[in-house]
Structures are given as structure tokens and as C-alpha cells.
Here is the input.
Amino acid sequence: MSILLRAILPLLAASLVACGPSASPGPAKAEASAAKAEKAEASAAAAGEEEAKPAEPAEAAAGKARFAVKEAGPGPDLNLRDPSWFKPTIFAGATLVKQGRSPADDDGLFASQITLQLADGTTAEACVEHLTEVVGADVPNLAVKDEGDRTSMNGSTDHYSVTLLCGEAKGKMTAYVSYRWTSLPTGG
Here is the structure.
């Protein structure tokens, strides 16, 4: 018999290696494993033990806390909205030349700007008057300064600062409308 076993054993071993163990344990084995896991959890809970978790490096924990703070308040990815007056349609008949937004800083604050070519016949005075009326409703402290070839307006609220310009560029009346978040609004 030993000769027969010597002949069959290598074949049996080769077939086990080739086929490998079953990928999924049988139902009885899976139920037994689940029962053991439940029992271990129940005994740990009864003993008042918490699951052991690997320690996080201080930098990773600080990064998570910083991210959690960002999630708690508004930010560019959390619906921090432009002021109601900040839109390319602020002037009827104007053509959008350029619109942009800076990357957010570490606090989630950013700047946005729009450059518009105004309709033919629009004067610098009409541009200033319109921006003062529309933006001034939200930013009542707009300071108007005549700079010769253009007029600038600057002001701020509790949460953003504003820079507005009216003047000629490339032979056309142009308006530059910009604001920068200086702090996050509270209360959502």
C-alpha cells in the first residue's frame, strides 16, 4: 500500500494546489465565523472595551480637523454664493469679455471678477451711476474716485470687499466688477 500512496499523494497534492481552496466557505463555515465575530463583539461591549484603532499621525488628525472646520461653515464647495448683483447681466446689452474666480485660500475665501464691454453709447457717468445704484444697495459705503481715464469705486460689507471700474478700453466703454470674500458669513 505504501507504493500506491506514494504514487497517489503527489497527484492529490498537485490537484489541490492547482484548484486551490474554495473561494467562498461553505454556509456552515460562514455562519460559524459570523457567530464567533458577534460573540467577540458582545463580550468586548460587555467589558466596556472599544475596538482598537491604529493611531493617526498628528498631521493627519490636524488635517481632518481643519477639513471638518471647513465643512462646518460655507466655502466655495459648500454653496458660498456670489452677491445677488454679481452677474454678467448686471448691464443690459453688455458683452461679457472675461469672467473668473481665484482659487480659494486655506479659509475657503476667494475673489471673483467680470469684465464687460458696455453697449454703444454708454458713458462712464452712466456706468458709475448704474453700478452705484445696483451694487450700492448691498454695499452702501461705495467710495467713488475719478482717476482721469477711468472711475473707480471701492467699498465693503462685513464679508466681502468690492472694486468696480468704469472706463474706456480698446475704444469701448468697459466695466470691471469684482469682489473678494474677506470672511465667511455665519448662520449658513
